[in-house]
Amino acid sequence: MHAGTATHDTHDASSHIHPPPEGFIAKYVFSLDHKVIGFQYFFTGVFILMIAGSFAELIRIQLVDPNGAIMSHSVYNSMFTMHGTAMVWLVLIPLVTGAIGNFVMPLQIGARDVAFPWLNMISFWIFPVAAVILFSSLLFGSPHAGWTEYPPVSLQDGTAGALWCMAIFVIGISSTMTGLNFMVTIIKMRAPGMTWTRMPLFVWATFATALMNMIATVALSAAVGALFLEHVFNVPFFDPSRGGSAVLFQHMFWFYSHPAVYIFILPAFGIISEVLPTFARKPIFGYKMIAFSSMAIAILGFTVWMHHMFPSGVAPWLQIPFMILTLAIGIPTGIKIFSWIATLWGGRIHYTTSMLYALGFLIAFTFGGITGVILASVPVDLHMHGTYFVVGHFHYVVAGGAVMGFFAAIPYWYPKATGRLMSEKLAKLGFWLFFIGLNGTFLPMHWLGMEGMPRRYASYAYFAKAFPDAVFWNRFETVFSFFMVASVGVMVFNLVWSLKHGKPAGINPWGARTLEWTISSPPPYYNFKHIPEVYDRPYNFDKPLPYGNLDNVVDVYPKFGEIVMPSPVPEPVGAGH
Amino acid sequence: MKSIEMQAVEARYNDVDAVYHETRDLRLLGFVFFLISDCILFSSFIFAYVYLRTSAPTWPPFVDGHQLPWFDTSYAALNSVVLFGSGVTMHYALENWKHLNRQAFYAWLVATIILGLAFLGGQAHEWTGVLQAGVTWPGSTMGASFFTLTGLHGFHVFIGVCYLTILGIQAHKGVYTGSKYFGLTAGTLYWHFVDVIWVALFFLFYLW
C-alpha cells in the first residue's frame, strides 16, 4: 500500500500541504483550521450554555413559590425568552454542527480541511457577534414574547425586539454558510474509495443537517428580516390591525424552526451511531436504513411545520395531512431506534461514559419521541399545546436527545482532540447527575401539563388552588434541575483537569474504526499526510481495517483499551517536498 | 489539418492543472448552493406576499377609504425587456470569452452593465410613480410586499452590476485565461439567476 504512495502523491492534487500557520492570531484567533474552529465553537457554545442555563435556573427558582419567588412577571418573560433563544441558536446548533461537525466530519472523510476554510472562519466569527447582539438586548428591556417572538406581542418589544431579530438574522447567515460549506465538503472531498454508502454514519447525519441548514435557515432569515422591518420601519407584514397576518409569521418561522429541531437532533443521531458500534464491538445494524432514514427525516422535516400551529386557527382540512406527516416522521426515527437496539443485541458492551450517555440518549429520546407522537394528534394537541406537557416533551427531546448526544461526543473525541483521556470517574459522575437531573426535572412536567398547568406563566397560584400537588412537584423539579447544573460543572472541571492530568490516549484508545482514529492525537494541522484510500464501510469489527495509504502503522483489528502511540511522523513540510 | 488559430485555442483550453480543476469544482458547487439558498430567501418573501394577498378581503387593499391602484404593467414589461436583454448580452459576453474574442467580450460586458443600470433607473422611476399614487412601504401590505421584494431584487441587480464591473477590471488585468475563468462563469450564473427571479416577480406583481 505504501509502495504506491509516491506515484499517488504526484498525481493527487490535494497532496500539496501548505506550510503551517504562524503567530498566535493566525493559529488560534482567525484560524482557517477546521479543528481550531471547532474548538472555538466549542468554547463559545459551552460558555453561552452556562449563561442560558443560569437563566433556566432563575426560571426554576421563580416557580418554587406559586406566586413567583424572585422576579417580576416581566423579568420572568424575558428570562424564558432569552433562555430559549440562546439555547436553540447559540448553544445547540453551533455545538452540534459547528463544534462536533467541524472537528469530526473532515477527519472522518479523510480530508485536510473543509471546502472553504475562509468561509468557515467567517461563519464562526459572526457567531459571537450574534451572541453579543442578542445579550445586548437585555440592556434595552429584553424581548418578552418567548423564543418564537410571535407578533403582534413581540412588536411591543421595541428596540430589544429589533436586536433579537438582528441577532437571529446574523446567526442564521452563519448556519447557512456552515451548511453550504459542509455540503460541498462532503460531496466533493471524500477520500478516494469512500462512496456514499461507505461514509461513516456521523457524516451522513452531518450531510442531512447541512442540507437543512442551507435551505431552511434562509426562510428564518426572511421571517426575522420581515419582523425587523416591521419593528424599525413600521412595514405592515404581521400586524393584523394594518392588514398583515400574525399567522404568516408563524408559517415562515416554523418552516425553519421545525427543521431546526432536526438540525440539532440529527448530528446527535450520528454521534450515537458512532458510539454504539464502537463500544458494543459489533457492526452497526442496518447501515443503509440509518443513513437513508436521516435523509428521510431531513426531507419529511420540511413538511410538518404546521403541527406547531394547530391552535392558531389553521384550516381543519390542512391539519389532518400535517398530523399524518408528523406521525410519519416517527417511522424513520423508529427505524433508527430499533437499529441501535439491534446493534446492542449480543454485543460485548463496554460501559464507558460515552456509552452511558448513548444508552441514556436511547431511553430519554425514545420517551420524548413517544410524547411527540401523542402531541401530533390534533385533538390532543389542542388541549396540551399551552401546557407544561409540551415543555416536558421538548426538553426530553432536546436535553435528553441533542444535549446527551453532544455529551456522548465529548469523552469520545476528547482524546483525539487533546491526546489525553478524560477522567472516567468524573465523567461518569457527570452522567449520573445529568441523567437523574433530567428525569427529575422534566418527567413531572408531563403530569403537571396533563392537569393543565399553563406554560410561560410567571405564577401558578390559580392552578395550584385547583391542583395542590403542583407546589410539591415544582419544588421537586427545581431541586433536580440543580443536578444538571452540577453535571455541567463537573464536566467543565473534567475538561480542564484532564488536559493536564488525563492518561495519554494514543492513536486509538477506543479501538474505533473510522478514519480519524488512524492519525495521531491531536491530529497535525494537515490531518492526513497521505490522503487515505477506503475499501469498505468502517463498522465490520471482525474484518481488518478497510483503509490503505495510512500515515501510521495501526492495528488492523483495533482492540478496546489498547494504547497505541503514534509512530513518529516525519514532518512533510519544508524544502524536501 | 487544424488551423494555427485552432491549435492556439486548444493550447489555451488545455492549460489546466489539477489543483485548478479541483478548486473550480468546489467553488462552482458552492456558488450554485449559494444561489439555491438565495432563491429560498426570495421564495420566502414571495410566500409572504401570496399569503397576504390571498388572505386579504380585497386586493388592491383600501387605505383611508381609497382603493390603491394596480401597478403599471406595460411600463414594467418594457423594463423587463431591458433586464432580459442584459441576460442575453451576458451570455454572449461569456461565449466570446470562451472563444477568445476579447474585444467582443468587453463590448458585451459593458452592454450588460449599461442595461443593468438602465433597469435600475427604470425601477427607480417606477418607484416614484408608485409612491405618488399612494402605495408606500409602511402604508399597506401591498406596498410592504412590493417594495420589499422589488427592493431586494433591485439590490441584487445593483450587487450584480458591481460584480460584473469588478470582473471586467479583473479580466482586463489578466486574472482570467482561456481556460480559467471561474469568476466569469459565476458572474454569468448570478446574472441569469437575477433574471429568473424577475420573471417570477413580474408575473406575481404585474400579471396576477
Task: Write a concise keyword list for the protein shown above.
heterodimer; A: 577 residues; mainly alpha; Cytochrome C Oxidase, Chain A; two-stranded antiparallel ribbon; 16 helices; disordered N terminus; disordered C terminus; B: 208 residues; Four Helix Bundle (Hemerythrin (Met), subunit A); 2 strands
Provide an overview of this structure.
The complex is a heterodimer of chains A (577) and B (208). The longest helix of chain A is centred in the first third of the chain and has 36 residues, at 73-108. In chain A, strands 1-2 form a two-stranded antiparallel ribbon. Chain A has one domain (33-548): Cytochrome C Oxidase, Chain A (Up-down Bundle). Chain A has helices at 5-11, 24-29, 34-62, 73-108, 117-136, 159-188, 201-233, 246-280, 287-300, 316-344, 353-376, 378-384, 388-418, 424-451, 461-466, 469-501, and strands spanning 533-534, 547-548. In chain A, helix 3 packs antiparallel against helix 16 (469-501) and helix 11 (353-376) packs parallel to helix 14. Chain A is globular and about 70 Å long. Chain A has 577 residues and is mostly helical. In chain A, 55% of the residues are buried. Chain B has 208 residues and is mostly helical. Chain B has one domain (4-207): Four Helix Bundle (Hemerythrin (Met), subunit A). In chain B, strands 1-2 form a two-stranded antiparallel sheet. In chain B, helix 2 (18-55) runs antiparallel to helix 5, helix 3 (73-98) packs antiparallel against helix 4 and helix 5 packs antiparallel against helix 6 (182-207). The longest helix of chain B has 38 residues, at 18-55. The model of chain B has no long low-confidence stretch (mean pLDDT 89). Chain A binds chain B through residues 11, 13-14, 16, 115-116, 119, 176, 180-181, 183-184, 187-189, 214-219, 221-223, 226, 229, 233-237, 242-245, 248, 251-252, 255, and chain B through 17-19, 21-22, 25-26, 29-30, 33-34, 36-38, 40-41, 43-45, 47-48, 51-52, 55-56, 61, 137-141, 144-145, 148.
